[in-house]
Amino acid sequence: MLASADSELGAKLSRRQDINDGTARPRQAKVFNPYTEFKEFSRRQIKDMEQMFRLYDSGKDGYIDLMELKLMMEKLGAPQTHLGLKNMIKEVDEDFDGKLSFREEITAYFKAAAGELEEDSGLMTLAKLSEIDVSTEGVKGAKNFFEAKVQALSSASKFEAEIKAEQDERKREEEEKKHRRAAFRELKSAFSQ
């Protein structure tokens, strides 16, 4: 039994060394929940990041590759060189596949918010461009943004407020459904007489 434990430990240490040397890829966790892993962001922010990710994931494969990132940066008004794009991916590419997964994109925003990115890096530019811009959103967009920001800062728990809003929305939809059913029954009874 001791020999099998030694060989298992040896195999794990050997694999870890291969990962550190860059000759093997680390295994990714099967389940990724951005809401529990990145508690620094609100549910709304994560949903906005996911929407942006899906917008630029033109291959619909769950990754933003080099060309999709190039197009993304051009549309955001901050085109990057080929080398700059590769460096952007390399900064947050955890699985060394040369493309960005949704988790890696959120990691880029997290690093930008934590001040871990260089000011002139492409990822910092991406994070800044993804924030609200009054010139493109207009005053109404800025007003909504700042109202949401104040609400998030003033609430004890940002998730509680968002979950409450989602529950209120579901209740409103259920009420609407009940009213539609009642109106349908009334209309049905008028035709069946």
From TrEMBL:
InterPro entries: EF-hand-dom_pair, EF_hand_dom, EFHD1/2. PROSITE patterns: EF_HAND_2 (PS50222). GO terms for cellular component: mitochondrial inner membrane. The keyword Nucleotide-binding does not apply. SUPFAM superfamilies: EF-hand. One of its GO terms (molecular function) is calcium ion binding. This is EF-hand domain-containing protein D1.
